[in-house]
């Protein structure tokens, strides 16, 4: 284990915020975990840094997860179970799957971040969530100094949510994930934009690869590339409201989009609410709201995390004032 001191985290977060970590190490070998556990510093785990807003210097130890490897755990005629180390880049796993003809995660192409974040956040896009393919999650449980494996059910997945954000927050270091992927075609093209894109691409025979390419095309046309403009994808979750409240909103704004959740609740796109409050394309100095997707806050150059936090606060307040809806942040704030 190589412990570094006073390291800038700028290269390790997609917002490109420059704050130092008191101590920093790259974890490449799970056998280092017992020794790291004994270090008397608060531990912070960083994967791809693509869903995080850094607002202050980080005291304690930042661990960058670099655990790598994809192995086939078992397979049968219909499925394959891949055991993937948590430091693998998520999109590399998607490419590995589509190149081997394994289906199930193609709609999640190009989501920034690492495999370890996929259960944490239950990442999702274009009608699919990671929880649909996650069989189990293995993690180092700091308190007991041991590895535990949780089944899909034990992970308590929800919309951008899991047990790792609640009961196990700061208590578990995710080391590997097993995904159950399909060998037989079983695709989800329910999301309108995918159908449209596949038609534009002239694809009439579906494949995991074709869907992944359609998704990659949609994402690159709408979402800013963190290598060019700092951002952490969707900054807020899409809020869930009651059907009663939704009906009141429809009477005022008949174009408001919605997705059904159950008989009583609907989800509305936060991007739509934020755009209606006039924020889309807003820029002040180095901070702003992306011009093509109002859910994405951006750092054009040298913004600090607090400026972005304050912008998000203003957005929350204006959405609350106009629509009486409380937006919840999706990014983790350190
Ligand atoms: N819309 C606007 N203004 C905008 C953008 C969108 O009014 O600037 C409206 C449109 O009506 C559109 C609807 O919002 O039909 C939904 O937009 P979009 O399809 O872009 O998806 P989203 O709900 O804004 C969610 C996820 C994204 C994911 C997309 C596609 C959340 C918080 N975000 O965004 O995930 O890529 O769906 O499935 O659920 C992420 O989590 O970082 C992320 C990018």
List the helices and strands and how they pair.
Elements: E1 4-8, E2 20-27, H1 33-38, E3 43-46, E4 52-53, E5 58-65, E6 70-75, E7 79-85, H2 90-99, H3 117-121, E8 124-125, E9 128-129, E10 134-141, E11 146-151, E12 172-182, H4 192-200, H5 208-222, E13 230-234, E14 240-242, H6 243-252, E15 259-260, E16 265-267, H7 270-276, E17 283-284, E18 287-289, E19 296-299, H8 305-323, E20 332-333
Helix pairs in contact: 4-5
The structure holds uridine-diphosphate-2(N-acetylglucosaminyl) butyric acid.
Instruction: Give the helix level as a range of percent.
Output: 10-25%
| Ligands, ions, cofactors | uridine-diphosphate-2(N-acetylglucosaminyl) butyric acid
Low confidence ranges: none
Class from helix and strand fractions: alpha+beta
| Euclidean distance between termini CA atoms | 24 Å
Into which percentage range does the β-strand content fall? 25-35%
Count of spatially separate domains: 3
Record the strand order, biggest sheet: 6-7-12-10-11
């Amino acid at each position: 284990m190589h412990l570094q001191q006073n390291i800038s985290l700028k290269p390790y977060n997609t917002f490109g915020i420059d704050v130092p970590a008191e101590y920093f190490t790259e974890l490449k070998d799970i056998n280092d975990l017992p020794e790291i556990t004994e270090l008397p510093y608060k531990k912070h785990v960083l994967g791809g840094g693509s869903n995080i807003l850094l607002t202050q210097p980080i005291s304690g130890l930042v661990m960058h997860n670099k655990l790598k490897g994809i192995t086939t755990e078992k397979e049968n005629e219909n499925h394959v179970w891949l055991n993937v180390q948590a430091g693998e880049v998520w999109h590399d796993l998607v490419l590995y799957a589509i190149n081997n003809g394994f289906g199930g995660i193609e709609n999640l192409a190009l989501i920034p971040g690492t495999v370890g974040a996929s259960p944490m956040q239950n990442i999702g896009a274009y009608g699919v969530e990671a929880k649909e393919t996650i069989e189990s999650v293995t993690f180092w449980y700091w308190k007991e100094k041991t590895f535990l494996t949780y089944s899909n059910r034990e992970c308590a997945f929800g919309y951008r949510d899991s047990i790792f954000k609640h009961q196990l927050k700061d208590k578990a270091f995710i080391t590997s994930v097993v995904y159950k992927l399909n060998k037989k075609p079983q695709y989800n093209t329910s999301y309108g934009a995918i159908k449209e894109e596949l038609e534009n691409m002239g694809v009439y025979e579906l494949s995991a690869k074709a869907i992944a390419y359609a998704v990659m095309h949609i994402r690159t046309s709408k979402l800013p590339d963190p290598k060019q403009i700092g951002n952490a994808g969707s900054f807020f979750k899409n809020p869930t409201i009651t059907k009663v409240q939704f009906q009141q909103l429809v009477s005022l704004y008949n174009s408001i989009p919605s997705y059904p959740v159950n008989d009583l609740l609907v989800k509305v796109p936060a991007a739509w609410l934020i755009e209606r409050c006039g924020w889309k394309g807003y820029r002040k100095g180095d901070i702003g709201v992306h011009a093509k997707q109002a859910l994405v806050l951006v750092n054009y150059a040298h913004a600090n995390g607090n400026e972005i936090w304050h912008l998000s606060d203003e957005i929350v307040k204006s959405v609350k004032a106009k629509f009486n809806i409380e937006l919840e942040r999706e990014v983790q704030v350190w």
